[in-house]
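quick one, 108 residues, struct below
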Amino acid sequence: MRLKALAASAAMALASAAALAQDAPPESANDEIVVPGQVEVPAPTPPGDPRTRAQRMRDIRAWDRCLIRAQSVADSDPTRFQAETPEDYCRESLGMAHRTAVPVSHED
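---
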């Protein structure tokens, strides 16, 4: 009975070691440091978002361009009165609450 328990624990230890060996990065020559690559996984679609991935990316790029333009206008003449922040300007002009929000034009 005790021999069976010992054999079972040895088998589990070997299985654990094999699993760890599979997860370990490959050894390299010359003591190099090997960094595994990053896995590109797209962010999941927010609940209730009717846009395709391409439409979401296009809207995010439009927000970024709008914000950069609005900030550069504000930076070009710091003495000029700014009634609204660049974010407020982009919210109004693009119809988006924030960078990743669904624009009013896409809402059902």
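Residues 94 and 103 are 7 Å apart (CA to CA).
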